[in-house]
Every structure is written in structure tokens, then in C-alpha cells.
Write a structure and sequence with these properties.
Length: 430
């Protein structure tokens, strides 16, 4: 049943993207009214939020009415999981429970029931199909090893069947994998793909995929241009969060990022008011399909720009622009080899007991780790973190730890999790 539901969801999503903007907004409004009623009746946190705002579900008829409700913060989700934010009657033991460190570095868990997981996977596949990926295309994914799991039945017969490899695999081996596989699709994080492109260029091998997908990090123009020049293939960037899943994506027209309005409502606000088209605003999400754990007016901390432009592709899905944020710094091993910051990010995310952490590379042989003290922190966990860092950067690297009450943000207000003070020599590193 699950696989049939995924296929049916995908079929409907491939059709609905061509509806007019007005039709899609009506669909959003209907879905919004349904999930607000459900949240009010079944989710204690939201019943409380409705009451404190003096609002009843019947008072919110359209997306424009959403500001009547208060924002939901990450801290509220963290503090109320699972008892007061998971819907009554939902068994979290039967749910998919992805967790994320997010941009703040503090772990957070979300519950998806089977129906929500199936819909999210269909939403995630739509951009690939829409950009021209074939059902049987050879698809290589370099990802967090936690995401490498058992294949579904349709993948075992070759449909949408990504071959997944750990990001921690030696980069020379990754290039050999690409050279041998000759993939149609390469799919990974921008910073990691940048390193792969550098290595491919340095070795002099020719790898020509049909297309490249990037996700999970901001893709700046310099990184995009370099990757395209090496692989001679179009790049389609995708945007989202673990809490929401895939929420926006580039189509072949590259007019911006199409918002998956059948799955989420995306508000752009500043000082608690909607911004105009072309203005920067904080992204606030409302999920329209996850009845196990609805998130209503949820602030993820991302910044985006709404656009009222019409995409040349003809889709009715509205567009947004993404701010090119400051990239996490690349790190350098003691032997001069360059390491993607995503490897450190994954180490932090995999250690749930560490609430917040920042890794600062002072020199190729010295790393300083700032850790926010918490009741769950033990010497064993700190030792494990040190070992994990040494596995990536080299056993001879000195790893010092510093316990803090909180991590300081940079001048822009961002909380960077990886900082390198080492000047990178790209030629030496390759």
C-alpha cells in the first residue's frame, strides 16, 4: 500500500505543478483549513497556542489569515516533543523519526507517520523527474551514511535506484567510483561536490553526467560555476530542511526556486509582518500533510526572497530566491588535503548528546572544539568526538576542547559550526 500511495502522490504532484497559481492557492487554503482543525483538536501545544492567541480554526480561512497565530520556535518543538506536539493517538515507535542539528546546532526530532513519509518522498522525487531524470538513470549519491538504507522494491528492479556512498569515503576512491560507474546523475552537497570537481580536474579524468543535483547547503555562484565547468552538466539545486523535507527546487529554466505549495506554506516575514516580492524575509513554514506532527508557522532560521515573477517553464508553482549565505569554511588535513566542512557537520549531527558545538581549525595540526555544557555531556562523549575528528583530519592533529555556556554568533547573527583559520592552497591540496 505504501508504494502504491507514493506512486499515486507522485502522479498527482506531476500534474498539479501545471495548475494555475490561483488553483494552487485554493488547494493550499483547503489543506490549511483541514490541518489547522486537526492540530487544534489533537495536538496539545497548538490547542494552547490557539487559545493564547484568542483564535479558533474557523477564524483562519486562507493563507493570508495565518499571521493571526503565533510563531512556533525550534525550542518549543524541542521542549514539547513528543508528548505535546505529536498528535494524540500517534505511536512514535511506528514513525520515521529524522533528527537534525539545524542551523543552530541543537538536535531536534520530527515524527512522520507512514502517509506523511510517503508524501514527502513523492515531493522529493518530483524535481528530479521535472528536470529530466529518467526512471532507470544511473544515479550516484554521496550522503550521510545514516541515510544509506535498505532499498525499496521499485529500487531493486532499477526504478529511481540511487547507488549511495558515504561522504566519509576517501575522495580518491569517490572519483574512481564516478569514473567506473559513468553515472547519469550525481547528487550530493555543494561543498562536497566542489571538492570532487577539484579532484576530478586535478586528476584529469572525464566524468560527464547528464545532470547534477545539489541540496542541504547554500549553493553560491562561484561553486556552481566551477562544478558546471568540470562536469559540463546543468546543476539543479534543491532547498529544504529535515523538519519540512524538500520545499523548493530549480527547474531547467533556472528562474528561481519553485515552492512545493502542495506540501508547505512558506511565509517570508520581517518584524512579524510579510515582506513584499523581492525583499528579504525570514522563512516561516506550515506543513500541509504531516498529520502525525503538524508544524504551524514554524521558524527554521533560513532567509529567502519571495518572487512574484512567472517562471518561463509555465508552472504555476510560485518562485523564491535564495540568499547566498556565507559558506562554512573548508578544513585542511595535516598533509595538506582539503576536507569539506560537511564532514564535520555530520560528526556533530551524529552525536545527539552534544547540544551545540563549533569546530575551529587554528592550524593544519591544531583544532579547537567549543562545546556548550549540558547535563547529558560526559567525558566519554567528548573523547568520542575527539576521536571522530582525528579520524577525518588525521591522528596527529591536536584536538583541544573548550566548555562554554553558549556559542557566540558572528556579526551577521549566524552561528557558524565550522570555522577554519587556515589559508587553503588549492594546488597543494590536490
Amino acid at each position: 500500500m505504501s508504494h502504491l500511495r507514493q506512486a499515486w502522490n507522485l502522479y498527482n504532484l506531476m500534474k498539479s505543478q501545471w495548475k494555475s497559481y490561483e488553483e494552487l492557492r485554493e488547494l493550499q487554503d483547503r489543506k490549511l483549513r483541514a490541518i489547522l482543525k486537526h492540530a487544534y483538536e489533537n495536538v496539545p501545544l497548538y490547542r494552547q497556542k490557539f487559545a493564547s492567541a484568542g483564535v479558533h480554526p474557523e477564524d483562519i480561512k486562507t493563507v493570508a489569515d495565518l499571521p493571526k497565530l503565533p510563531i512556533t520556535t525550534k525550542q518549543e518543538v524541542r521542549d514539547n516533543f513528543p508528548d505535546r506536539i505529536v498528535a494524540n493517538g500517534v505511536d512514535t515507535g511506528k514513525c520515521w523519526l529524522p533528527h537534525t542539528g539545524g542551523s543552530t546546532g541543537i538536535p531536534l526530532t520530527v515524527a512522520y507517520d507512514e502517509a506523511a513519509e510517503d508524501f514527502q518522498k513523492a515531493v522529493a522525487l518530483r524535481p528530479n523527474l521535472s528536470c529530466g531524470q529518467g526512471l532507470f538513470d544511473k544515479w550516484i549519491v554521496f550522503t550521510d551514511p545514516r541515510h544509506i538504507g535498505e532499498k525499496k522494491w521499485f529500487q531493486r528492479i532499477g526504478l529511481f535506484n540511487p547507488t549511495q556512498f558515504s561522504l566519509f569515503e576517501d575522495i580518491d576512491n569517490q572519483v574512481l567510483i564516478l569514473k567506473k560507474a559513468k553515472p547519469d546523475i550525481i547528487d550530493t552537497y555543494p561543498s562536497h561536490l566542489y571538492l570532487l570537481a577539484k579532484k576530478v580536474n586535478q586528476i584529469g579524468v572525464e566524468i560527464r553526467p547528464k545532470m547534477v543535483f545539489t541540496t542541504a547547503e547554500l549553493l553560491d555562484s562561484q561553486t556552481r560555476e566551477h562544478i558546471q565547468s568540470v562536469f559540463n552538466a546543468p546543476i539543479y539545486d534543491q532547498f529544504g530542511d529535515v523538519e519540512m523535507g524538500r520545499t523548493a527546487w530549480e527547474c531547467p529554466a533556472h528562474s528561481g526556486y519553485h515552492i512545493d505549495v502542495e506540501a508547505v506554506i512558506m511565509e517570508f516575514i520581517r518584524d512579524e509582518k510579510p515582506v513584499s516580492s523581492g525583499e528579504r524575509g525570514e522563512i516561516v513554514y506550515t506543513t500541509l500533510y504531516n498529520y502525525a506532527m503538524p508544524l504551524i508557522r514554524y521558524a527554521v532560521g533560513d532567509i529567502g526572497i519571495p518572487s512574484d515573477e512567472k517562471c518561463l517553464c509555465g508552472r504555476g508553482l510560485p518562485l523564491m530566491k535564495i540568499i547566498e549565505g556565507r559558506k562554512d569554511d573548508f578544513l585542511v588535513r595535516s598533509d595538506g588535503t582539503i576536507v569539506s566542512p560537511i564532514t564535520m557537520d555530520l560528526i556533530i549531527k551524529n552525536m545527539m548528546a552534544i547540544e551545540q558545538c563549533r569546530i575551529i581549525q587554528e592550524t593544519p595540526g591544531r583544532v579547537r572544539v567549543q562545546i556548550v555544557n549540558s547535563h547529558s555531556l560526559t567525558e566519554q562523549i567528548v573523547s568520542q568526538l575527539k576521536s571522530s575528528i582525528k579520524e577525518v583530519l588525521g591522528e596527529n592533529v591536536s584536538v583541544e576542547t573548550e566548555m562554554l555556556a553558549e556559542l557566540l554568533r558572528d556579526k551577521s547573527g549566524k552561528l557558524r559550526k565550522v570555522i577554519s583559520k587556515v589559508k587553503i592552497d588549492w594546488h597543494k591540496g590536490w
